[in-house]
Design goal:
Number of domains: 1
Distance between the termini: 28 Å
Strand content: 5-15%
Number of helices: 5
Amino acid sequence: MNDKDILLVEDNPDDAALTLRAFKRSHVMNSIHLVRDGIEALDFLFGRGEYASRESGALPTLVILDLKLPKLDGLGVLRAIRAHERTKLLPVVILTSSKEEQDLISGYSLGANSYVRKPVDFAEFVEAVKVLGIYWLMMNQSPPERPSP
């Protein structure tokens, strides 16, 4: 399970720290790359900008995506991921505090694999992250990576 990287797209420092702490407490020891806005997420995935020297062929196994992001919101990130041949099958889990039904509908309409609302209680949050880790990193069979065009 450790060879599977996670891209965490979260702009709120408290939520990012909480998510990282929940992964650690759940014994998810995978590499977690944290980016803080939608443009940075796409730069990471497509090897652009400050990530131009990153091995662009290596995609994370899972993207955990917040919706309320600066520069480009989570739905815009999801739309861009699904529009590109190389990333269109990449598993994306929306992890958000949004209670807007339209966000839920839009997320699934744009191809989210899962939509999870952040629990307020830390113990519940740890359990949610643990379940996410077990399912997406251990049980789920990911599609093969597609070569860059």
